[in-house]
Amino acid sequence: MKFSVKHILVAAFTVSAGILNAQVAQTNTEESFKTVEEISVIDFLMKGGVFLIPIALLLFYTTYIAVERYLYIRRMTKQDMLLLNDLQTQLNAGNMQGALDVTNRDQTAFGSVVKEGVQSIGRPVPQIEANMEKVANIEIGKMEKNVNHLGLIAGIAPTLGFIGTISGVIKIFYNISISENVSIGNISGGLYEKMISSGSGLVVGILAFTAYHILNGIIDNYALAIQKINLEFVKLIRPKDGNKA
After folding, report:
1. Number of domains within the chain
2. 226 vs 18, 107, 113, 135, 232, CA distance in Å?
3. Percent of all residues in the chain with a pLDDT value above 70, rounded to a whole number
4. Cα–Cα distance between 208 and 153 in angstroms, integer?
């Protein structure tokens, strides 16, 4: 069997093309595995640099404050709609101890304010209102404990992310100045750091900002509701204390 030079060249070209395709396929496979490895969440976040540590701490503290305050405020602002009705029944019967027992069963901020009103019966109405207002302010102060920290975090976290961005830019120019080579390898590390730091800081800031306003909204609703309770309580006792007003 005879082979011409042409046949030999074609065969050699075919083998070379097959080897090249195999190498390309292997390279693509390796790059695919490399890409999958690079988008790992932990590896991705580790690129954020040292500024990601305080941002992570702020995230944990924000979560703790938001959950703890929300549970406390929701428990203290739970309103018993039958409280004043039961209280009126006891007061109409002249049973002061029974009225105090009614307020004692309500372990909320509403119960504390109404209890102060019951204990102040017999004094002038303006003084009763003032005493109830003071207790309401004390209860609001308890609810607002550490809530202002969320407002601070809403400003601090994005600032830390911005500082991380500046650090990343400095890192980019430093690598370029050392290597004197503007390449993707020199730029990518700094870009990872600055983008992850900025993004993380903004996310934590948004969470803290949202929690801050939600909690303050609940507290504001309580402040409005307790004013209504105070007015209803004064109307309830005014016929008895009307001459002392």
Report:
1. 2
2. 83, 15, 8, 10, 10
3. 71
4. 6
